[in-house]
Amino acid sequence: MRMARGRGRGGPMRGGMRPGPRPMPHGVKPMYLPRHPFDLALCEPTFPRVKPMADETAFTNALMKRNQELNPTQKEHTAVLNLVTKLQAVLDRIVITPGSFDACQIDEVREVGSYKKGTMITGHNVADLVVILKTLPTREAVDKFAQKVHEDVKTACGREAVNMAITERGFELSKDGATVRILVTTILPNIRKLNPELHLDAKIIQSHLAAVRHSRWFEENAHHSSIKVLIRLLRDLRKRFEGLEPLSPWMLDLLAHNAILNNPGRQALPINIAYRRCLQLLAAGLFLPGSASITDPCENNNMRVHTAMTLEQQDQVCLTAQTLLRVLSHGGYKRILEGNSPDITSDTSVWEDVVVSPLEKAYEKPPEKKEDEDMEDAPAEETMET
Question: Locations of Gly residues compositional bias (predicted)?
Fold first, then answer.
């Protein structure tokens, strides 16, 4: 009886061994797979603790105290609420009974931003309203719309002064230390009809539509109180450390949501662990090239949020987080939470006899070629043709 030869995928097996992987065809690049940086919160079952976690009651109390200091006062909340309420009433009247006003037609008005999300910080008493127009947002129409709203709000407020300012995004009204920004956009079918010479900038228009999507997602997925506390603390951190400025409010929202809820138990982590985890993730390269990062839940094609930053900004955020994490690991949380003078991310500091030196940049921006140099390097014939 004839014995059959052993065969496996890719041909006959020799010596009882399966053949190795086939080489990539010529000209075909291997598939790019972004990687997630090491995250102890996700790997803790694989790396169990050798000893119990140190008592961090003092650190937790400091975080909660700082959150209370950042939380707007009742007077600030009331001032913003009153102005928002009057503005919404004015806008509703324009939608329902526009009368002789025909400069534009309103499709919808939506609250967005930190006021809507409940993450507003004291001293920055600003609420945002996105006004979606059915008509094209010409600059002339926006100016007339601003004048109409300003007049109606002044009538509603009586003798109280209401200031108005036209901006590239629309206009804003201020009263009693509170400000409401009216962000003008238009419906999606009108995006292709925009003329840069007549209408508001297309990128600004699209960013306002994105803000509506962000607000809707946040309301559905990030309503946990710990997430709002962490967002407020992260925004304060970004404000005081220059290296974290490239992080947008939307990046901080997603980072806080990820740090609080993305864990094997799917339970909200304590604020002290989540705060440290944010710095650990940034320091490990969460927002660096090649990282899986955080996928934007409001955009298509699996867009990663950190790609909105330049390579130089990504490096700056990472090295700043690494320095702050080293300071935090050696008990310097008070300096991180309460002040930054001198700047611990640019000056050497000592914590518990440990010297923490600022890190150097890993990314160097390539020099830009000048047009004159390009002309000199070009062949004589091409130069003559040019």
Answer: 9-18
How far is 323 from 331, CA to CA, in rounded Å? 13
Give dist(CA 358, CA 367) in Å, integer: 25
* Residue 133, strand partner residues: 106, 186
Q: Which of 102, 90, 237 is nearest to 175 (CA)?
A: 90
Region of residue 105 (left: phi > 0; alpha: psi -120 to 50; beta: else): beta
Looking at residue 379, its pLDDT comes to 43
95 membership: H or E segment, kind and range:
helix 74-96
Tell me the pLDDT band of 219, cut-offs 50, 70 and 90: very high
More confident residue, 365 or 324: 324
Q: Give the Cα separation of 71 and 229 in Å (integer).
A: 9
Tokens read off for 229: 């506390």
From the list 64, 165, 178, 174, the residue with the least C-alpha distance to 123 is 178
Q: Which domains does the chain have, with CATH numbers?
A: 72-222 (3.30.460.10), 225-363 (1.10.1410.40)
Burial of 235-272, coded b for 16+ CB within 10 Å and e otherwise, reads bbbbeebebbebbebbbbbbbbbbbbbebeeeeebebb
Query: Sign (positive/negative) of CA torsion 109, 114, 119, 120?
Result: negative
Which pLDDT tens digit goes with each residue over 123-137?
999 999 999 999 999
Query: For residues 110 and 216, what is the distance between their CA atoms, to the nearest angstrom?
Result: 10
- Please state, in angstroms and as integers, the Cα–Cα distance from residue 337 to each residue in 239, 302, 341, following that order: 11, 34, 12
φ, ψ (nearest 5 deg) of residue 222: -125, 40
Average pLDDT (84-113) is 92
Place of tokens 């009153």: 82
Pairing relationship of beta strands 163-167 and 126-133 according to DSSP bridges:
unpaired
**Separation CA 168–CA 329 (nearest Å):** 43
Which pTM does this prediction carry? 0.85
CA 49 to chain centre: 33
pLDDT score of 375 = 45
